[in-house]
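Input record, target 12 of the design panel.
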């Protein structure tokens, strides 16, 4: 799973990153009066990419499919909303650690219970925990019930009286989200290629064999579950910062389903695939919503087609393009004539 990818993967991702990062330079020329709206959509895509990437650590790397991952996404949003002062902005220096700490504690508590299950049972237990928090929040007065909680001020990023980054500025917030996504990607890239990531890869392939080798697989799975939850909570905090509110919809199972579709569309187990999937999903959603009121049908058909045509997602198309696979299939018998050891003795026996 954790392969060394061809150089074209890095080149394509660098080009796309540069294209996104320079949007403020060419956005107005390309979209005119809609440039501010597109900047907002692009910022949200970055947030969703971080969310999808966090789920890939569970689904793609570890092999645990979760339908309750929105629990952490909504938890990050509500932590920001409930902990923020009413008449002044909170400081990002303590808000970010607070979101990470609370999500880590909740992830540890839930993870101890859910990692004991596998397969469909893991899916159902994560879904159950997510729905429990959803109904608790939607019926609680302190959380605003079904209306949610509004955030009057975005957190500030300053040292003393000096503002390092004005997060109220759409362009500054855009680059802040882009920076968080790049940090998350580099962290997961390092993690999956470390000794810890190799153990997760082994658990994904054959957990019983890893246990026979002496690895405490439960501990590794628990740590991965907590890390994944913390990253999802950070994404939820950023989403609440962008739109200025937190509501129960961010905790619902359909949010977990949407991010799972992003993962399938982009390619599981690749780390960069979920980023592409999040962008592709939002672009398709935006296009279909403006085409017809029956856009869910088109989106469903698109996901089905992607599963059938691109079983490894967009990332698989980049890693192994069809023309590359055809070339390898054509040249393999010529380059490796001794690929079948049993064929040579039979040929010799006939000649003799």
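The sequence produced for target 12 reads:
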């Amino acid at each position: 799973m954790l392969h060394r990818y061809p150089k074209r993967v890095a080149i394509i991702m660098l080009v796309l990153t540069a294209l996104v990062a320079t949007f403020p330079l060419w956005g107005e020329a390309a979209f005119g009066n809609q440039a501010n709206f597109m900047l907002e959509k692009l910022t949200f895509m970055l947030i969703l990419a971080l969310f999808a990437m966090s789920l890939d650590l569970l689904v793609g790397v570890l092999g645990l499919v979760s339908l309750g991952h929105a629990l952490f996404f909504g938890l990050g949003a509500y932590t920001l909303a409930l902990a923020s002062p009413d008449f002044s902005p909170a400081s990002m220096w303590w808000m970010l650690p607070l979101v990470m700490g609370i999500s880590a504690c909740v992830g540890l508590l839930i993870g101890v219970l859910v990692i004991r299950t596998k397969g469909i049972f893991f899916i159902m237990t994560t879904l159950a925990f997510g729905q429990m928090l959803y109904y608790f929040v939607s019926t609680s007065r302190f959380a605003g019930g079904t209306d949610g909680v509004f955030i009057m001020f975005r957190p500030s990023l300053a040292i003393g009286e000096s503002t390092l980054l004005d997060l109220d500025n759409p362009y500054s917030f855009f680059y802040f989200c882009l920076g968080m996504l790049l940090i998350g990607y580099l962290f997961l890239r390092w993690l999956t290629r470390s000794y810890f990531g190799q153990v997760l890869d082994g658990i994904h392939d054959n957990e019983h064999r890893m246990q026979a080798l002496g690895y405490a697989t439960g501990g590794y799975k628990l740590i991965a579950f907590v890390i994944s939850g913390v990253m999802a909570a950070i994404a939820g905090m950023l989403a609440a910062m962008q739109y200025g509110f937190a509501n129960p919809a961010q905790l619902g199972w359909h949010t977990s389903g949407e991010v799972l579709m992003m993962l399938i569309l982009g390619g599981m187990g690749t780390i960069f695939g979920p980023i592409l999937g999040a962008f592709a999903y939002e672009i398709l959603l935006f296009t279909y919503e403006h085409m017809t009121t029956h856009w869910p049908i088109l989106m469903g058909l698109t996901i089905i087609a992607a599963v059938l045509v691109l079983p490894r997602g967009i990332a698989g198309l980049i890693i192994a393009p069809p023309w590359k696979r055809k070339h390898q299939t054509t040249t393999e018998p010529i380059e490796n004539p001794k690929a079948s050891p049993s064929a040579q003795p039979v040929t010799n026996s006939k000649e003799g």
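The beta strands are 149-150, 157-159, 162-165, 245-246.
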